[in-house]
Amino acid sequence: MIEHTPETASESIALTALESSGAGWWRVLDNETAWWSPRMFDLFGLPRDSGVPTIGDLYRLYHPDDADMVARAFMTLFRSDEPVTLRYRTVHPSGEVRQHMTWGRRQPVDADGNRWLAGMVMDVTEHVDDARLIEDQRAFRFVADHTSDMVVRHRMGVGLTYVSPASRTVFGYSPTEMLGKDPADLAVPEDVVRIRGLLAERIARGETVSAEGYEYRGIHKDGHQVWLEANPRLVINGAGEMTEIVDVVRDISARKQAEAELHAARIEAEAASRAKSEFLANMSHELRTPLTSILGFSRLIGAGGGLSEGDRGYLDLIRSAGETLLTVVNDILDFSKLEAGALTLDPEPFSIAALGDGATALLRDQADGKGLTLTCEVADDVRLTGDVTRLRQVLLNLLSNAVKFTDAGSVRLALSTEDGVDGSPVLVASVTDTGCGLDPAHIDQMFDRFTQADGSVSRKFGGTGLGLAISRRLMDIMGGEIGASSDGATGSTFWFRVPLSLAADEAAQVSEAPGGGLDRPLRVLLAEDNAANRTLVAALLGAMDVALDMVENGEEAVRAVAATAYDLVLMDMQMPVMDGPAATRAIRALGDQTPIVALTANVLPEQIDQCRAAGMQGHVAKPIDPLALMAALSEHARPAHEKAAAA
Question: Which residues, 6+ apart, have CB-to-CB distance to 467 below 8 Å?
Fold first, then answer.
């Protein structure tokens, strides 16, 4: 008879109870060493003779949503003596999902110095209350079923395991039709390669969730392509393998279409802008070329004397008409640059008295011709720094308008300075006339482009209606303001206020007007295809100590420079055979550093930049200002010692 102690009886009862419960036993030493009881194989749906699975194989048996949780639990067991209780799901090779409960704990060190993890597993599928799980699933399905985005789950090696109803609008397939499909079969092949590369990088970084998604082209059921946006969440098991992808896929075809239309519109707008710029450049060149002859020869004939009063009057009308046309061309170009934001300021020191006197001097003959008194009043000759060219342009616009619209009486320019908010000087200018006045209700609109006082103005006085608009834009760029006042009967006053800065004493002494003659004889080459312009330049330089050679295109200019030492080359931009920039580059390629100045009707900023980029040192615009031509000769002509060295 075997005697049973209370202890042995308890152990026997416990073992009998565990065996009858269907529990499985396990022990784990490390990632490579583990032991399972026979029941463990049944719990995981494996044959009992298949051998204990490796860690990697084991993680593939856990439900993808629970694999990370199980991995974290085992890490806790390896680090602590505290017991761990865990509920998770397994997926049998047959696809059946079971609920398991595991209890585990780290054991004391055994006789061999090892510390095992030991525990037991029970299948609790039949005993789990899934009410909460069912509610969560219902909530998830409600959201998935009522969103326009397609929600999918893709298990590696299995295919799509869940697809929301939005698949009908995104891909044209019902959810049932998509189950089991490989998502790669629903995308354009080259996009599949790119996406796999992106996912591989995320897996390598251990990045299950990314802040950035990706776009790709899907293949609709009817064969056409749709643009999709995705940002999948990766489910990675404890072995570092991606087991599942959960994704929300959005159809962005409409957005892509809008982007494509916007891109096409932008390209079209840029093409239109280029066409406009090219048109303005060509029109400017074509107008300036004949104006060069009209203004140049009228000045030469007028300066020569020997004309009757009647002929001189006719000549003055020709010159005045040419200058008016040049003003129109300049206004259009200026406004185009302002609209494109391409106009920049060039500040320099100046005297406000010299600014006022210079502006009124240019309108003196026109005012005298109408019997008007034109005066300039300067409160104090302060020296400031600013873009004097643009300030003079605004003053000339206001003065010329005042003279144009005043039939009798006077035009008065007043200049003064006052302290600005920060203490810096503010230039204040006003032009007051005794003309017909302006309708106060129309004053603001006069500063809009292509707007004039009334419909009859353009018929009586002409003009583009751009002058005041340009003046306002210039004031805006300078940080100033411009306006007008009138009672509509006794004349009007136009004014502007612009903040500037005081000029340094030494800088303020710089002369504003170019002057002086040549200090030595020069030999100059002119490359110009227009015969009239060649004659004009020869006439302008004829009174100076200049030996002038002339050629008709850039190719001839290159040969001439190679054969002769010149002090300066005047180079037209647009010529047959070889244009000016190409000729300049060819001359520089020879190693010749003869100064080259563009003498051209190309006056847009990008055209001037083109001259500089080709290797030219200066730029003189057509119609030719004799003073500007003289200044270019004085500034750029090669010094005598360089000429001697070259010879």
Answer: 331, 397, 400, 401
Write the pLDDT tens digit of every residue in 333-350. Answer: 776 666 666 667 878 899
Q: How far apart are CA 229 and CA 591, in angstroms?
A: 58
Q: Going along 170-325, which residue ranges are E strands?
A: 214-219, 225-230, 233-236, 242-251
Q: Please say whether the beta carbons of 23 and 39 come within 8 A.
A: yes
Per DSSP, helices labelled H in 434-487 are: 457-460, 467-478
Q: Provide the 3-class DSSP secondary structure of residue 509.
A: coil
The answer to whether 540 touches 528, Cβ cutoff 8 Å, is no
Q: How far apart are CA 326 and CA 467, in angstroms?
A: 13
Beta strands at 492-499 and 501-502: parallel, antiparallel or unpaired: unpaired
Helix (H, G, I), strand (E, B) or coil at 566: coil
Read off the tokens for 123: 């299948």
CA atoms of 96 and 90, how far apart (whole Å): 8
Beta strands 225-230; 596-600: pairing state = unpaired
Question: Which residues in 94-129 are b (16+ Cβ under 10 Å) and which e?
Answer: eeeebbbbbebebeeeeeeeeebbebbbbbeeeeee
3-class DSSP state of 223: coil
Angle, alpha carbons 204-207-211 (nearest 5°): 135
Give the integer Cα–Cα distance in Å for 294 and 319.
7
Task: Please count the CA atoms within 13 angstroms of the CA of 146 that sit on its side-chain side.
Answer: 6
Omega of the bond prior to 623 within 30 degrees of 0, cis? yes
Helix ranges (DSSP H) in 414-523: 457-460, 467-478, 505-508
Contact 235, 67 (CB under 8 A): yes
- Which pLDDT belongs to residue 19? 63
- Asked if residue 486 lies in contact with residue 493, where contact means CB atoms within 8 angstroms, the answer is yes
pLDDT in tens, 400-450: 889 988 989 999 999 999 988 888 899 999 999 998 888 887 777 777 754
Backbone φ and ψ of 449, nearest 5°: -70, 150
How many residues appear in the chain? Answer: 647
CA–CA separation, 548 and 546 (whole Å): 6
List the single range of 426-435, 581-590, 638-647 with lowest mean pLDDT. 638-647
- Work out the end-to-end distance of the chain between its first and last CA atoms, rounded to an integer number of angstroms: 136
What is the pTM for the complete model shown?
0.48
Q: How far apart are CA 479 and CA 191, in angstroms?
A: 52
Beta bridge partners of 251: 228
Nearest to 642 by CA among 558, 515, 544, 523: 523
Q: How far apart are CA 584 and CA 598, in angstroms?
A: 10
477 touches 341 (CB < 8 A): no
Q: How far is CA 271 from the centre of its chain?
A: 17
